[in-house]
Every structure is written in structure tokens, then in C-alpha cells.
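Lab meeting, action items carried over

1. Structure of the two-component assembly. Owner: GW. Status: complete.
Input record:
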Amino acid sequence: MSSENPTILLTEDNENDIFFFRRALLKASTNFPLQVAVDGREALDYLSGTGKFSDRAQYPIPSVVFLDLKLPYVHGLEVLKWIREQPSLKNLPVFILTSSSEDRDRQRAEELGAKAYFVKPPTREMVLEAMQFLDEPVPQPAALP
Amino acid sequence: MTTKTLATPTLSSAQLAPSADGHDILDSDHLVQFYETDTFLVESVSKFMGAGLGTGQGGIVIATAAHREALEARLRTQGIDIAGVKARGQFLSLDAAETLSKFMVNGSPDPERFQKVIGSVIARMSSRHTGLRAFGEMVALLWADGSGDAAIRLEQLWNELAEEYSFSLFCAYPMNGFGGTANGEAFAHICHEHSLVLPAESYGAANRTADERLRNIACLQQKANSLEAEIEKRKCVEADLRRSKEELTTFIENISLGLHWVGADGVILWANAAEYEMLGYTREEYIGHSITEFHADREVIEDILNRLNRGEKLHNQEARLKCKDGSIKTVLIDSSVLWENGRFVHTQCFTRDITEQKLAEKTGRLYAAIVESSEDAIISKDLNGIINSWNAGAQRMFGYTASEIIGKPILVLIPPDHYNEEPNIVDRIRRGQRIEHYETIRRRKDGSLIEISLTVSPVKNAAGQIIGASKIVRDITEQKRNERALTEAHLQLAKAKDELELRVQERTSSLREAITQMEEFSYSVSHDLRAPVRAMRCYAEVLLEDYGERLDDHAKKYLDRIVSGGTRMDRLIEDILTYSRLNRREIQLQPVALDRLVREIVQQYPEMRSARAEIVIQGKLLSVIGHEPSLTQAISNLLNNAVKFVASGVTPRVRIRTERRDDQVRLWIEDNGIGIKPEYQHRLFGMFERIHPEKSYEGTGIGLAIVRKAAERMGGKAGVESDGLTGSNFWIQLPPATNP
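Predicted assembly:
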């Protein structure tokens, strides 16, 4: 996914985890803009550009998605499945970031084409690993619009 | 030879036949005189010899002592001076037997010796006298001895001698020596050797006229004829008699009735085959032995013999006889004694074997006793359905006594709605069939009904004809009641089973629901419960990272404690989840290359790196059948423990190897750690069990529980060997892969 300002979409309902993810990004010296969807439905809206996310200038298509599994309204795996069904999104790298270490979750995620499966808390290493999947070299931090 | 005129001057009553006339005998005559009485012979010889001696002729007598004595006495009455003629050598008297013995060789007269013994005497006598008369009885002796051929040979020797010397010879044979038709030929032969034959005295008076003689001959011919006819008849009668005797003998020998005769001394004189064969003896083993030997009861045979001696006749006397094979036969004896002029000749005994009859009687009594004592009712009836026997069991079962019911129809016992069974039963019995365990209803005397099982068999007479039926009736009222109770119990049981199954299904479904809830719960736990713990820990870390410089050492130490508490809590939750996951997750068993797996795990964990620990994998590890994720979990836990529980300052050394054990493969993980004392080992694999204090060694107390649970879920087991001093040897054992 090429973009001048690759956006990261984090789907996470837990405020603490959002906080720790931001810290991890910071530690990884990644200044990519971070968008957050707080439940599964918002994630779908964001990705399809509907509702409050219809403005793509404000809410661009992300270059990478971090997806929690246990989400209100729509489960993370449902979101992943939906992404895989969208022709325009099928190459979008998705990373699972969850507190579940269940085999069945790992297995399902792998089947649905998740790039990696991370168990919380988010760390700098996770972010760096995810960045490797971006087409372009990691850009230098830039001022947010 | 010319016919002689036979004349006797005086006739005694004995002289009824013609005899040699002393004066008519020629020198060369060889005459034979047959006689019936010695008196007649002596008379005849004395005339012949007296006439010769009286005229100065020589005389030789070769006869038996009795005849010589009688002859000399008779000659004296004729005025012959015996002593004188003997002294002058005119008369010679020799013993016939003694003389005969001088020339007989091997039962036949020897010609040379005859010449020497007789020829010399004849030669001497005939040379001294004009005319010689000789009387000889040696041929008669030979004849009487049965040596007919020798007698004829001797006659021939005399004839040969007569050709040489001139003398007349008088032979005499007793007529009774020629009885029987078989002697006819020999008689003719003897007559042929003589020139003159004189008949015995019964021929009649000597001075008959020719006419009288002819008549007499005719009479004799008639007599001979009738005698021949008589002989023929006798032969027939004899043959008949012989045949009858043979038939009788055969009959007696082959009769199935035993017969024997016993003498007064108790010895068996005769017995037929039926008798000794009945007891298994041969003829020789029986006849000639004492009858007492064959009786099993000594007092019985003694009593029998005593009574017979007293003249009693025995009838159906029972006795027991010993067979050759040692068995005993029971017999009935009929016996009486044949007396002759008051003398005990022998017994006449008839013996009948009644052993089988006795046995049959005994068996019959036994059967009767069995029938009578049977719990079952045993009833017999004829083909018209009339009862003709009724045992005690029948009385007990139906209430009728035998005298009440015998002669009554069997229908008395059958309730009206079962009447149609009887014709069917009778029909089958008539065809010789049996009816077995036919279950039906019968009626007692008091009208109550009983459930019975009926077995009916045809009864046959001696000729094999079916004449009735025997019924064995068993009261199955109780049995039926039990059966019904059993059926009811079965039904109840089936119902209970259904209910139980339903309940099990309900329980299962609620259990399944509970499991689902449990899964949901643990899923929630893994998310929701861990989140706040993680938040606490992470914020504490944030505080340390971002504000550490502004905090004093106490504050930092407290934050450290929060971090480690949070970490530990998270680990605890993670382990519990792992353990519960092991319980509920479906595992598929398949071959696992242990060698590869262990090497991967060792590579993966930083604690196993060679700098921190010394891990040795001994040889190529054997493959097992297992579930790789569970196995990975278990092995990881064991390896973690192996490197963790070492005394401080000691480099962990771990040896990993496999071996065959109890048809399984055992994976050993042997460390040089602090070990576990045997008394604690049994607690080791329990949930939340910790042997070592928390502050010394980090752990949740769930790791080994997970190991054991994983091993068990894969069909194996896990354990430890340690002396508590020199490290621990943990093991997991699993079924081997077919291709290790």
C-alpha cells in the first residue's frame, strides 16, 4: 500500500491499550498517523468510508491495520474476513493484537490471512515487525496535517 | 470131498447135531466141527480120537487145559488107558496157548517155526504109527482173539503139512464166535480150508434120514431168511434209534434250558452246553467238578443236596451261581434224583437263568419308587384317555387320590375351554410323537386352575404297539408368576433406562452448555481479566520509564513490585487457561518426530542457549504418536523446569534421551538441578503444587500439572525420578510411532 503518509488503523476498544499502543509507536520512533476505531462496526465503516469516515482526506485508507479480536458489535475475526472479501483491500496487511492466546484464534487468524498474531501488551518490537510489511521504507516523522 | 455118513451109536440129550464119526475119517481129512456147548465138543472129539487110539493110530491133542482134561476123562470112560497110550508115545497132549506162542511172530504164524514145532511132532508120530489123528484148538484161540487172518493162515499151514504127511486133523470153533453178519465171509473162508464141515449140535439129531435132513435144511433156510429180514428190520430200527438219539442229544445240548446230572458225591456227571455256557465255562471246566464250586452260597447248595438225598423234589429253587468272569447269575433250579433199587444214581437238574428278570424286577421297583417320590405328577392313560396310573405327585398337584381318579377320563383334569387340546395330544401320541414342555392350564379337584408344563410320551406294549401315554406334569404356577414378575421388572428396568437416558441426555446437554459457558468464560478471562492486570503492570512500567528520575528508591521498588505482581498474575492466568484448554480441546493423535520437535524447542527458548545452559540430546530421539501442540507445551514446561531449578551459580546441564519402555517411548529430561525429595514427588504433578518456596524459584505451580494432563490426553503418562540431591529425571511416555 503506497501512500505519502501511511496511516495505521488500530481497532481497539480499551483505552489503556490504545495508550500503550501509542507508546509502542513512539518507542519505535514511528510517527505515522494513527487512526482508531473503537469497535468492529467503526472499523468496517472506516475501511469502507461510510458514515462519519466518509471523508477520505481526513480518514485515508490505512497502510496497515492492527486488529483486536474481542470487539463490541463485530468481532475482530469478522472484520478480518470482511477485509479479505474486499478486492480493493485484499493486500492490506492486517496484524492481530489481542490478549487471547487461544489456539483457535491464532489458527483462524492465520487462515484469514493475518500477517502476524501479537499478544498484548503492544511493544516496540511488534510495531517494528509490522513496519517491515510496508512497501516503502519507513518515512521520517513528519508534521501531521 | 465126499459126504460122510455121520453116525453116533449112543445119543445124549446134548448130542443133537451130527459129529465126526470116529471110524469114517480118512487119513487126509481136515475136518472142522462147530459147536455150541463144551459137552458136545468133548463128545465129538472123544469119538474122533477114541476111534483112532482104539485101532492103534497115533493121537495129538493141542487144546485148552479144560478141554484136554475133559477129553482125557471122556476117553477113559471109553476104555482108553490114557496113561498107557501116553507112556507108549501113542498119545500126545499139548497146551494150545503155549504151543501157539512158540511159532507166532508179530501176530502171525511163522511157517519155519510152525514146521519146527508142529511139523517135527507130526513127522515123528506119523513115522511110528499107521494113521495119525490130531485135534487142534489153536485156530479157535486165534479166532477168539480177533486174529481171523492168523487163524486162516494157520489152517493153510496145517493143510500144507497134510500134503507132506498123512494124518487127519480135527479143528473146532465155538459157533458163538461167529455172531453177526460181518463174520459171514470169514466163516466161509474157514469152511473152505477144510475138507469136511460139521455143523453145530442144534442142527439136530445125527441119525436123520436124507428126507429129514432136507426138511431140516429147508427149515434152516427159512429161519435164515427170516433172520436176514429181521436183521434188515433191526438195522432200520437201529438207524431210527440212532437218529432219534442224535436228535435228542442235539436237542438237549442245544436247548436254552441248562441241564445237568450230579452224582451222590456232588460231582457233575454231565451237563449240556446251555448249562456251562450260561456260566461262561467250557465243558471240561464244568463237568467232573463238584457242583458246590459253582454256587455262590454254600448253605444253599448244601441244603439242596440234603433235600435231594432225602428224596425231595425241588421246584423253582432260587440259587446264585458263580460265572467264570466272576459275575453272579441268579437261577431257578428244578431237580430230582434218579433212584435205582434204592440207590442214588444221579440228580436231574434243570437250571433257568433269571438274572435279567431279577434285574428288571429290581429296576421296575426302582422306577416305581422314583415315580412315586417324584415332585412332578406322573400319570398314565390309555388311548381312550382313561387314567390308569397316578403317583403321589399327581395327588399333591391335583388333589385327587389314586383310587378316586384311576379309571376316570383325563378330561376331569382339563378345564372346558382347553378340551380341544386333548384330541390333538392323543393324535400325536398315536403317531408315536412326544410332546415336550407344553405349557397349558389344568384344573384341580377343588376347581382352582394351575399353570403346568406337560411332557407326554407314548407307552408301548412288548410288541411295540402304542397302547397309551405317560404324562409328566410340572406345576409352573410359581415359575409363571416369577416370569411375569421378571417381565415386569424388565419393563420397569427398560423404562428406568429410558428415563435415565433422557436424564443423561439432559445432563449432557446442560453439561455441554456449561462447557460452552466455561469456554466463553475462559475466553472472556483471557481477554477481560488480563486487560486490567496488564494495564496495572504497564502503567507501573510507564511510571518507572517516564518518571523514574523524580521518584525515590522506595517508590521505584514499590513500582517494581507492582510490575512483578502483574507479570505473575498474567502468567498465572495464562497457565490456568493452558491447563483448561488441554482438558477441552479436541486433539488428533499422529506421529510426531520427537527429535525434530525437541531440537526446535531448544532453539526457540533463550534460556536453552548454550551460553546459559548445556543441553545434550543423546542420539536420535524416537518418534511417538501424539498431538504436537500439546507435546510442545509439555516438553517446553519440562525443559524450563530443568534449567530453572538449579542451585545458584550452577550452570544447568540437561540431558535429553529416549528409550523403549512398556511398549511405549519414554522421553527423559535429566537435569543437574536441586532435585525433589521422594516424599514430595507425589504432590509434584498436582494443580498449584509448589515444592520450592516462591521466593527462591519463580513458578505458578501449574506447569507439571499441564505436563501430566497433556501426557494423559495423548494416551501416555509422565513422572519423575529423583533422590532429592543430584538433580531430577523427568519423563514423558507415549505410544511409539510405527516408523520411528
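2. GW to write a short summary for the group page. Key points so far: Chain A touches chain B through 15 residues (CB under 8 Å). The beta strands of chain A are 8-11, 34-37, 64-67, 94-98, 116-119.
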